[in-house]
Every structure is written in C-alpha cells, then in structure tokens.
Amino acid sequence: MRDVFVKTLEKLCQSDSDIFLLTGDLGFKLFDSFREKYPDRFLNMGIAETNMIGVAAGLSFSGKKVYCYSMIPFLIMRCFEHIRIDVCYHNLDVRLVGVGGGLVYGLEGVTHHAIEDVAIMRSLPNMTVVAPGDPYEVSECINVSVGHKGPMFIRLGRTGEPQVHRSVPDFKIGKGIVVFNKGNDICLLASGTMLYKTKITSELLLKKGFGVTLVSLHTIKPLDEVLIKDCAKKHRSIFSVEEHSIVGGLGSAVGEVLSEIRYGGLFKRIGLPNEFSHYVGRTEYLHQKYGLTPQKMANNIIKLIKGPSNTPL
Predict the structure, then answer these.
(1) pTM for the model
(2) Of the candidates 271, 277, 269, which has an alpha carbon nearest to the alpha carbon of residue 105?
C-alpha cells in the first residue's frame, strides 16, 4: 500500500505544483524517486512529528496540499493536540498518511501497534477517515484526496497487500463499494487491511451454503449510512471486520447507525479486543491469537448464526 501511495503522489506532482510531502524521519528508500524529482517539495522533519504537523499547517495556510507520512502511533497519538488545533480547528488541507494499521508492526510490540487511531481521528470535527482495502483503493484514494477539502487521515498497512478488486473500483469518499453480492444471509462490512481476509472468509461461508455480500467500507468517516441501511433491509446478519479495537472503530460506527434504525437482525463486531497485546510476533501470528484469520472468522460467524454445536470448517 505505501508503495502505491508514493507512486501515485509522484504522478500527481507532475501536474500539481502545490503538493508537498513531509516525513517524520521514515521512508528513505521509499521516497528516493520522489525526493530526486521534487527536492523542493520533500521535507524530512526528523523525529519531531508534532513539529511536522505545525509545519504542515503553515504550508496549508499558504495554499499547499500537504501529505504527512509516518507510522501511525507517532503520527496520530503523539501529535493529537496539534492535529486537533493546528489542522482540524482551521479545517486545513492536510493529509495524514499513517502506515502500520492494526498489528502490521507486530514484531515491534505495543509501542508500534495501531489499534486506537480510527477511534481517535473519527472523534475530531472536520476530519475525514479513510482506510483503503487494497492497492487499487489506495491509488484512487490518493487521486481523490488532492481535491478534497479539509483534513484527512489515510490509514495504510505496509506493503505487498494483495488486490481484492479485479479492476479499478469507483472510489468515492463516503461511499462504500459492494465487492460482490451473492445472497442475503450475511453481510460482511470490512475496512483497510482486513478486506482481503474478509474476502477469503466470504468464500469459506459461500462454500458452507450461506448467501454472502461483501462490502468495502473504506471511508469510516463520513460513513456510507445509505448503504448500511440498505444492507440492514436485505440481510439477516451483519458483521463488521477491522484490524482495530472494537471500541470506537468501524464496528462502533456501523453499530451507531444500526441501533438508530432499530435493526432487528444479528450484528457483531469482529476486531481486536480493547486491550494492549502481550504477544509479540509477526502479523499472521497475532491474527491467529486474536481470531482474525479467515477460517477462525468464518467459524465464529457460523457459531453465532447457528449456535456453538455447529461443525467447524
């Protein structure tokens, strides 16, 4: 995802001289080409992320379109007050591009995990929150972000994520994408790094005879309430899937909509528990521990729908 972000931004710079890229002492090899082509529009702010946000605000006040890049914990949690006052209060065109969503940096431990960031950012007035689900969505998100007015948090994984969409989707901020609709038993609403695994989960459920609809809810704020309400009318069960705490993220946002319309079906949030991980390891290892593998998710969904006596996959 991060490679696609940089390549897309570099192409956009050819026709837009107002684009600036700031980094908090990260991504040196990643940004080599960008820095060589646009040295006057690339700034390494060092390990001083809060200062980076202040500089970004100043550049935006000068009419620039600023992208700030760093690992999510250092970009979001460390800089919260500056994002809130310098950027959101003034409704500036600053894009916060965070890498390492969820447990992507599992080997680095809790300091590098990003499980609260969506909850923090969606609470801020004027802030748009987007978690693209595959490289196509990342590319389209960056293309759209240049013309977007106001602050935006773009939540990425790392690199090497597989494609989910067969072709470039119709990507619009605030509008979910129906990846496929193969029945009305279960609707899976996924965001960010979990989209691909949710697709595999969908395929497992289809093999077990369930009708499944898969939706990419890449924009968590503003949420596509129209699409969610439509899914509620047509599906007996709805599950949100995210690599984020179940508190305050996609699941909470969807649950708010469903509760207000008094949805009568089964709704369940699938994500990370509201706790710090005491496990250290690669992402796949941590996903196994927290039940975020396709097989475990499918088994849990079946148990919730049919009861614990159902035979696992």
Answers:
(1) 0.95
(2) 277
Query: How many structural domains compose the chain?
Result: 2
Residue ranges making up the domain that contains 10:
2-155
| Model pLDDT for residues 265-274, shown as the tens digit of each residue | 999 999 999 9
Q: For the segment 92-136, what is each residue's pLDDT rounded down to a tens digit?
A: 999 999 999 999 999 999 999 999 999 999 999 999 999 999 999
Q: Please say whether the beta carbons of 164 and 106 come within 8 A.
A: no
* Whether 14 and 147 share a structural domain: yes
84's CB contacts (< 8 A; 6+ apart) are 124
Q: DSSP letters of 237-279?
A: EEEEEEEEETTTSHHHHHHHHHHHTT--SEEEEEEE-SS----
Cα-to-chain-centroid distance, residue 160? 16
- Residue where a domain stops, chosen among 123, 155, 187: 155
